[in-house]
Amino acid sequence: MDTGSPPLDASASAESQAGGEPIPISAIQHAVYCLRQAALIHLERLWAENRLTAEGHVLHLASDDAGNRKVRGVRRVSALHLASRRLGIAGMADLVEFRASLDGLETPYPVEIKRGKPKLHRADEAQLCAQALCLEEMTGRAVPEGALFYAETRRRTVVPFDLDLRVLTESTIARLRDVFASEKTPAATYKATLCRACSLIELCRPKIASRPVLIWRDHSLQDALASPDNKAGEP
Ligand code: SF4
Fold it and tell me: For a pLDDT cut of 70, what percent of the chain falls above it?
């Protein structure tokens, strides 16, 4: 008997405070990495599949079978829908473990599956933290930590949901909400380490997009005048 199970209230309609569609939890990961990337994917609906994104997709397909089973006394729920009405976000957790606590109730413990290995940036952690914030709202239980499971290392990295990470996550959601409300994609800022690893680099073209518009126009004009199609005397 699962009397210790906290009630889940996804209410699946996590409308943002300003109304409208909930922000996808996956967008939070993209936005921490680069706000422009999040806007290109979620506002302009651009996506570029490369080997890395394809690997991630396959990993998630393998973990997307919804299920509820007990492993060594821990209830594990896969592909769990999550939502927060307060934050206006919604999405799905790869896996949530419901661990027995000293008070006789269960404490949710989200686990997100990622390709590669632990990163230097906090994008994966913020996505996981957003899941924890949803679980706290849905169950009324504190969610102090979770884990990222990386396919390359095949190990879990424990992520404490401390104040810094919660502030980063909530401020990122606020920035995303502003971008979605304005329907304007932020300008590109070329950062070599981020842009070179970004699957959207060919679509974003950050070196060009980050030039001041007049410089861009001059370069375009020069390119056009230098084109063999524009040789003097030719129509
Ligand atoms: S290429 Fe760079 S600026 Fe463009 S979306 Fe990717 S990370 Fe952002």
Answer: 73
Q: Please tell me the distance between residue 173's alpha carbon and the centre of ligand 1 in angstroms.
A: 19
Domain hosting 32: range is: 23-186
Tell me the C-alpha to C-alpha distance, in Å, between residue 128 and each of 54, 114, 125, 172, 192.
21, 11, 5, 13, 26
Confidence bin at 18 (pLDDT 50/70/90): very low
Q: What is the mean pLDDT of residues 112-121?
A: 91
Question: Which residue CA neighbors atom 2 of ligand 1 most closely?
Answer: 195
What does the alpha-carbon distance between residue 16 and residue 19 come to, in Å, rounded to a whole number? 5
Residue 145 lies in a domain: yes
36 pLDDT more than 60: yes
Pocket perturbation via mutation, ligand 1, pick of 175, 203, 204 by most ligand atoms within 8 A of CB = 204
Over the chain, what is the mean pLDDT?
Answer: 83
Cα–Cα distances in Å, from 88 out to 18, 133, 224? 8, 11, 47
* CATH number, domain with residue 72: 3.90.320.10
- Look up residue 196 and give its two tokens: 């070179």
Question: pLDDT value at position 19?
Answer: 56
204 CB near ligand 1 (under 6 Å): yes
Model confidence, pTM: 0.80
For ligand 1, whether the C-beta of 37 sits within 6 Å is: yes
In a domain, 12, yes or no: no
Question: Is the CB of residue 194 below 6 angstroms from any atom belonging to ligand 1?
Answer: yes
Q: Which atom of ligand 1 is nearest to the CA of 199?
A: 6
